[in-house]
Amino acid sequence: MNKKILHLLIVLIGYVGCICSMYLTWNLFENFNIFLRLLICHVEGTIFIYVLSVLFKNSSWYDAFWSVIPVVLGIFCWSDVNAAGNGLRALLMFTCLLFWAIRLTYNWIRSWDGFSHEDWRYVMMKGKTTNTFQYFINDFGAIHLIPTLCVYMALLPMNYALFYFGSDVSWLDWAASIIGISAVIIQIISDQQMYNFRKSIQEPQTKNTGLWYYSRHPNYFGEMLFWFSLFIFAISAHTNAPWLFIGTMIMYALIAKGSVSMMDKRSLSKRPDFKHYMDSTPALFLNPFKR
Question: Which domain range does residue 176 map to?
Answer without folding.
Answer: 86-280
